[in-house]
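Work through this protein:
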Amino acid sequence: MKTILSSETMDIPDDVKIIVKAKLIEAEGPRGKLCRDFKHLNLDFQLIKDESGKRKLKVEAWFGSRKTSAAIRTALSHVENLITGVTKGYRTKMRFVYAHFPINASITNGNKGIEIRNFLGEKKVRKVNMLEGVSILRSEKVKDELVLEGNDIELVSRSAALINQKCHVKNKDIRKFLDGIYVSEKGTISEED
């Protein structure tokens, strides 16, 4: 069953500038600029103004199946994430978990990388470089906590995943050996400031 026209709109905040160029969407705000490509989706993007003069982004799908109609909401969620990124920014917190050997981590090359030592008492040094635009810090208030910050939700989350994956326990019962670095909290930067 194909729907003739399905469409949704979203409001654009005043301090954010959105540029729609074919299916490339750029968002520019106080924290910087982010870009996202929607060329793989069969959707139409338009910037419109409603009666009161408020700017909106309209996404339409002509003769779309259920999957195409579902992609409208997904695309709007992605644009919302861009807007949040350039206005508030994203912050992810990670905690060290260890039973016996304390994990030792040092931040390298100007908050852009981390070296993890003494994981399960191993001599191996695990190095993880952050993805572009993501910075990493040790938390001052909380012991054994890392804070990752950036504008792009995907790059921040992927950087956290890279750190998490570096500390997998091999050849042991993972129900017993729970050591590692795990995501403890996800949110925006301006929530706490």
